[in-house]
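Notebook entry, structure prediction.
Reason for the run: the old model in the group folder had no record of what sequence produced it. Starting over properly, with the input documented here first.
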Amino acid sequence: MKSEFHSPLAHSGIRHSHLRPVEAERGNVLRMSEISIRTMDGDDEARAAALIMSGSDVWKRLGRTFENTYRSVSHPAFEKLVTVAEGKVVGICVMAIALPLIKGYIGALAVDAGWRGKGIGSRLLAAAEARIYSESPNVFLCVSSFNPEARRFYERAGYAAVGELLDYQIRGESEIFMRKTKGPWDEFGK
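New structure, fully documented this time:
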């Protein structure tokens, strides 16, 4: 099984990361010709990514529809990475790299329900971090207070809560602002 990271960003110094083959799950062997993480390409992939995101319970609770998720996923100001397996998009990460203050924000990370628990999210997050770390010593993201599994996922990956945005997306819930850092800006790139 061939597994590799394809990136048109190779000139930026991002190291390619390899995905481990997906393990057997509950006795069922999953067969794939290739898993890759790469820049999203075209409208069909944007629609597939929006379908993954808008179909998740978290996005539904936030009131996101396919239409507004598609607009976000296809917006040219954001960089998008997708995980492709068996010829289809199974994961998406949306990043804002050039924000004035926070150069490096992960706006969304989602994996198709049928592909969760196989390390795809961790590898997609690592690829996004590699892209952001080429521009910034910090990676920021928000996780909803009603999504403790996602918060644990990010904490295991080295993120720490740095703030809480009360009633930000929906009344009665918070967005937990998280950061992972390689150090202060004054040491970045030295």
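Summary: Confidence is low (pLDDT under 50) at residues 1-33.
The old model has been moved to the deprecated folder.
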